[in-house]
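Before we proceed, please read the two lines closing this message. Let me know whether the structure tokens fit the sequence:

…
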Amino acid sequence: MPGQGLVLIAAHGIELRFDVIDEDLQRGIDVGTPVAIRASDGSTLRSRVSEIASATTGRTRTFTVTVPLPKYHGLNVRIGSSVAADFVLASCSGCIAVPSEALHRIENRTYLYLIRDGKALLEQVEPGIKQGNLVQVSLDWNRSDRVAISNLGSLADSIPVFAVAVEGDSQ
């Protein structure tokens, strides 16, 4: 979730302040939430939320979120300049992510079709973290099966298919 922050000098060092709406706080931004900070030159740094205002600010109805920069942060920022940040509400390492259009709902369960040996195989998955068009799924993937992303309504378990590569497909 992106934010535009302002770089300020505080008594204990440099800090960033972001104005966020209540809905973002309800999604999970809290004291201790990790923040990925990006300066205009492309340099990045991680920090954590240290403080959240207890009341909204004026007419904007936003809450000020404070993020300290470590003493030797190395970011190319100037006092008063703005920086972009992503509040990291969930993360995973080594996860499998598929395009959201690959997911197929049947009777309140989520499935996707794997393409293996020229056949469509229906696999139940648990969707997890969403980022843009990608959704993390729980799947025991063999790293060679393809995932169907179109014509899902025409597919059925174990029927023969002819897979067509899409842009960015390495196979």
